[in-house]
UniProtKB/TrEMBL annotation:
Keywords: Hydrolase
Full protein name: Haloacetate dehalogenase
EC number: 3.8.1.3
Native species: Rhizobium skierniewicense
Gene Ontology MF annotations: haloacetate dehalogenase activity
Higher taxonomy: Bacteria, Pseudomonadati, Pseudomonadota, Alphaproteobacteria, Hyphomicrobiales
């Protein structure tokens, strides 16, 4: 298939960077945010399904990823924090004409979406968080089983240029270990053109640095921000989806772990591991659509 056939595309200058996006459809706006080690190509099947169901869908690359800007990290790493990334996306949506929208995020994109809900509550009509536990929960309760499954957090967070240089030596080996190792997936589980788009980023040295800076900021900046906001609830209607055979399901009781963080929560398991949005696209689109139908913007204040 051709990725995002019929979608408009562009790069918008916001918050000191340029954010790459594709968009199509009419109706309530829905922002889709990818995770690591991917880019907006993650949504190449889900986005058209949501467009066909009556939504205006925007898929964006996070800063440091895909075709968005990959700035040099500030000394304090704040420009790679989820807070900075959330501002990017709020400003992108505003520039596109949407001051309020639904947001759906997987992996790092879900962490950005969580922070977006806390810092920009009025912008969020609903949020869907896919296969994460809150950052503060993961880093506060760092059991050996969690550390073993999430080893990449601590490798990527090492000072530059160590992880960058190690990855550059064989980027396909490193990223395939992540993509195929976190849920029993294999290459044929992924659409060829989506995998090609991922590989293009894997061989972009600036993108390698961008993702390392993302993880460095998570440990040094985001954890502190989340500790400060630990008692704040996500006010927007919240949907958590997780892979029933993935690490999150093995390591956490997913409904229980999210209840203290969300005022209006529903949780569903989806077959597969961490990358089930690439594989169970129809199930994911169906869950998101049904959730959005229960929380239309037209019925919200």
């Amino acid at each position: 298939m051709t990725l995002f056939a019929g979608f408009e595309s562009g790069r918008v200058a916001v918050n000191g960077v340029e954010i790459s996006y594709v968009a199509a459809g009419t109706g309530d706006p829905v922002l889709l945010l990818h995770g690591f080690p991917q880019n907006k190509a993650l949504w190449a099947k889900i986005a058209p399904a949501l467009v066909a169901l009556g939504y205006r869908v925007v898929c964006a690359d996070l800063r440091g990823y895909g075709q968005s800007s990959k700035p040099v990290a500030d000394a304090n790493l704040s420009n790679y924090s989820f807070r900075a990334m959330a501002v990017d996306q709020v400003e992108l949506m505003s520039r596109l004409g949407y001051n309020r929208f639904h947001v759906v995020g997987h992996d790092r994109g879900a962490r950005v979406a969580h922070r977006l809900c806390l810092d920009h509550e009025g912008a969020v009509a609903s949020v869907t968080l896919i296969d994460i536990v809150p950052t503060v929960q993961l880093l506060s309760d760092l059991r050996k089983e969690v550390a073993q499954s999430y080893w990449h957090w601590f490798f990527l967070a090492q000072p530059a240029p160590f992880p960058e240089e190690m990855i550059k030596a064989n980027p396909d080996l490193f990223y395939e270990t992540c993509l195929f190792g976190w849920g029993g997936a294999i290459a044929t589980d992924f659409a060829d053109d989506q995998l090609m788009a991922y590989r293009a980023s894997w061989h972009d040295h600036d993108a390698i640095s961008g993702s390392c800076n993302d993880y460095r900021a998570a440990v040094k900046v985001d954890f502190a921000n989340d500790l400060q906001d630990r008692e704040r609830l996500v006010a927007a209607p919240s949907l958590v989806l997780y892979g029933e055979s993935g690490a999150m399901a093995r390591l956490y009781d997913m409904p229980s772990v999210w209840i203290p963080f969300c005022a209006n929560l529903e949780v569903h398991a989806v077959p597969g591991g961490h990358f089930f949005p690439d594989i169970e696209t129809e199930r994911v689109a169906s869950h998101v659509f049904q959730f959005l139908q229960r929380h239309p913007m037209s019925k919200q204040g």
